[in-house]
Amino acid sequence: MSSAVMERTAAPAAKRSTIWVLPLIVVALIVALSAYIGSTSLDSSEARSLTPEVILTSLWQHIELVVVSTVLTIVIGVPLGVALTRPGINRLGAMVLAVANAGQAMPSIGVLVLLAMIFGVGFWMAVVALVIYALLPVLRNTMVGIRTVAPALIDAGRGMGMSAREVLFTIELPLAVPVMLAGIRVALILNVGVATLAAFTNAGGLGSIISSGISLNRMPVLIVGSVLTIALALSVDWLAGIAEKLLRPRGI
């Protein structure tokens, strides 16, 4: 067997082996965390903060914050990014990107606190802050993905009699999907991390366990909240990577 054939055969096998690296790391983290908690004598405050009900509720709240904010980010960012690449309003692209860049440049805790002071606390205020913070990668990658489509392909579509709408949905968007998915993946991971700060606006999440560990000065509580957040971020990144491969158009 030639070396070229062996390399092509080994490449899919290498990809299949690396796809399980993140799940194995997550499992190792959970096992190590369980062993640590099992070998630690928890006082009453720590036991109340680390009951299965508290952990599962916080985990679900965190996932809910991430899912809702990411969906809204996609619903806002993708159509806006597409619109800003259309003739006539594409000049506004630089200005809108500057505003989105400013939103991400602001400290996330500052955005959360500011919104809480103006509109109050709760789940939806945290979601708004997460959308503001995660909008830039989705918006930017949508615009970049569409703008990098070869003009010759667009001209070929128009030469075949396609309308501007048909060119967009048949040529531009399918070719821009890989870049767009990368931006969505970045936004998703950003939201997992920033959602820990939602606890400061009474929105729950794993950040509430971390803040309890800090306020109570209980290291086991702090470790549990931190490790669970890391495990969730790695799990989400793994799932997003799989979705990115599945949603990528064939041949691109």
Q: Cα-atom Rg, whole angstroms? A: 22 Å
Largest sheet, in brief, is: none
How many strands in all? 0
Poorly predicted sequence stretches spanning 5 or more consecutive residues = 1-11
What is the H-and-E element order?
Answer: HHHHHHHHHHH
Query: What coarse outline follows from CA principal-axis ratios?
Result: elongated
Distance from first to last alpha carbon: 28 Å
Backbone structural class = mainly alpha
Q: Work out the helicity level.
A: over 70%
Total helices: the number is 11
Mean pLDDT: 84
Instruction: Bin the strand percentage.
Output: under 5%
Notes on the protein architecture:
This protein is mainly α and 252 residues long. It has helices at 3-18, 21-38, 44-49, 52-83, 93-105, 108-119, 123-147, 151-159, 164-194, 206-216, 219-247.
List keywords for this structure.
252 residues; mainly alpha; 80% helix; 0% strand
Summarize the structure.
The protein is mainly α.
Topology:
Elements: H1 3-18, H2 21-38, H3 44-49, H4 52-83, H5 93-105, H6 108-119, H7 123-147, H8 151-159, H9 164-194, H10 206-216, H11 219-247
